[in-house]
Amino acid sequence: MKNTKSVKFNINEILQESGMFESGFSRYQHKQSCYENGISSPADIAKTAKIGSYATLKEYKSIWVEMGHHCRQTCQGDYKDLKNIDSKAVESFLEKKIDDGVTLKTFEKICSAVNKFGYMIEKDFSPNINAVKSIANNELSDNNLHRAFENPQKIIDSLSGNYKLVAEMQYKYGLRVGDCKYINTKYQLNGDTLIINNSKGGQSLSVKLSPNHAEQLKNIGILNVNYRSYLTALEKACAKNNDNYTGSHAFRHNYARESMDGLTKKGYTREQALIIVSESMGHHRSDITNRYL
What we know:
By secondary structure, this protein is mostly helical. Helices cover 60% and strands 5% of the residues.
């Protein structure tokens, strides 16, 4: 049986076959050449534009490798050969990056890299990228001052079924939506403890659930909530309650602020409380958590 190529090897193989990298490639000269040949569409020009910078190549390759691992580990499909990456896998990866809370600027770079990978395997992912970008504009914000919901409990009460359960877990435990929209209790629930593998940065988290939430998950067996449908339901709940919809990440802001307030009232210093909250949110640095406050 033939061994599966490593993600890095597979990416390098695809890159070499595509001829997409050419040191010193001039985008200006390429654009002029396209114009001379009657090609004026920015999309058509971009399809044949090569990567000419080693710095850009390094940045793009790191994104391609991350996408490759995501596809093989998370997505349903045959991605042993990453040429098989399709629109569903691309959308899944981009949604994961939104849930990771990257900045809009970083997300734009990721989209550029994914788009270029599509050209390398002769596929056009631009419609899928644009669709997810519309979500990113709501979910991601460079201004975190007003991300928290004014009344998160009212929003949760306006939801139903599994949407409500996911929202409750985001608010009560500070979880990213990607960590609780799909849960297989057979492998992830140990008593009342939820085991989350491959969270942001590939880290693993252990979350102590309330008996009620643990029981709900046990009864469900496999919780599987569609990301976009959940966001749509959440946006409608916000509109119903005259709350500002800034994305599901707002629940993490509520969690951070309320947890900090509760710990300081118990006598913890701000620095001590920040360390505890940072750890519970899966942050390696307390300055990241500061952005949620």
